[in-house]
Q: What sequence folds into this?
């Protein structure tokens, strides 16, 4: 059940609605389905606020508005060419219907450990831009997400945009989602990887972020360090997988046991051999 629906057309009109307890709503694909039977109270739709859905290239960065739908982000040429790890995750998120309604901002605020866009945003070192009537602040997405369903968003604040530094051209991007079925699957485990190699094939930079294996996404710095300076061979990737296993704290739930998740987590880097 939903209470009164407001459709502000500016941030100035949004702030008093938030003060009065209205909840921001973007695509509604999480908010409306999680409400199930409970009253949602008043909601303030963000879709009518100009500028919140823009996708703009800035020097060395892509700024992605929080209310840009997954489908729009996926269509953007810079996302396809330079942020392929995000594009790959978006391709496996939900269904065309969900991708047309759901937004990058909504996926982030929901803060599910299984949120598909989160490991790529960690691997891309993305920042979030939060705005309130008092101004704007930016912080790494990894500092914004603190626990399942919990972020550091303050009362009266909304997520306005993601700022994504463009990785070097030619970097290897990979997103893998292990689920119980091919379509509309919630991740049992996922890996977002970004690897830069020199002309001799030696890894000069590696970023690995896993999802669904801990309360929040985990960046595996030890595994990243292990890959740097070497080659992406089977032995090294298995060793990186062992380090990932040490960093995670998977749970048993209806989709998989913790033991299965741990097993899969150690094997995920091997897929980098096939790209
Ligand atoms: C059938 C189905 C399949 C799905 N499959 C997947 C899947 O495969 N992978 C996956 O990751 N997710 C999946 N989802 C979850 C969901 O679609 C995504 O998380 C989506 O990105 C949520 O975005 P939204 O715009 O619909 O968020 P909303 O439902 O509008 O909002 C979600 C939460 O964020 C808040 N919010 C939204 N935007 C802002 C903002 N800019 N600032 C502050 N607060 C905000 C809302 O108040 C609410 O608390 C699925 C959902 C359904 C119903």
A:
């Amino acid at each position: 059940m939903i209470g009164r629906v407001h459709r502000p057309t500016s941030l100035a009109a949004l702030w008093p609605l938030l003060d009065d307890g209205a909840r921001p709503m973007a695509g509604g694909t999480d908010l409306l389905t999680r409400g199930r039977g409970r009253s949602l109270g008043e909601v303030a739709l963000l879709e009518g606020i100009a500028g919140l859905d823009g996708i703009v290239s800035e020097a060395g960065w892509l700024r992605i508005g929080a209310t840009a739908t997954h489908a729009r982000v996926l269509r953007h040429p810079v996302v396809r060419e330079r942020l392929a790890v995000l594009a790959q995750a978006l391709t496996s998120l939900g269904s065309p219907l969900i991708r047309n309604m759901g937004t990058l901002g909504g996926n982030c605020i929901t803060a599910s450990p299984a949120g598909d866009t989160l490991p790529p945003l960690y691997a891309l070192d993305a920042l979030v831009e939060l705005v309130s009537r008092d101004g704007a602040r930016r912080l790494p997405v990894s500092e914004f997400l603190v626990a399942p369903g919990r972020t550091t968003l303050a009362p009266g604040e909304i997520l306005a945009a993601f700022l994504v530094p463009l990785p070097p051209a030619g970097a290897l991007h990979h997103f893998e989602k292990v689920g119980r079925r091919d379509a509309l699957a919630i991740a049992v485990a996922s890996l977002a990887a970004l690897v830069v190699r020199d002309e001799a094939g030696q890894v000069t930079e590696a970023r690995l972020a896993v999802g669904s294996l801990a309360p929040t996404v985990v960046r595996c710095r030890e595994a990243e360090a292990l890959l740097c300076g070497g080659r992406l061979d089977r032995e090294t990737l298995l060793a990186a997988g062992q380090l990932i296993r040490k960093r995670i704290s998977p749970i048993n739930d209806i989709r998989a046991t913790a033991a299965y998740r741990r097993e899969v987590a150690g094997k995920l880097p091997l897929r980098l051999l096939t790209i």
Summary: The CA atoms of residues 197 and 204 lie 5 Å apart. Residues 23-31, 33, 46, 66-67, 93-94, 98, 101-103, 105-107, 109-110, 115-116, 158-159, 184 surround flavin-adenine dinucleotide (CB under 6 Å).
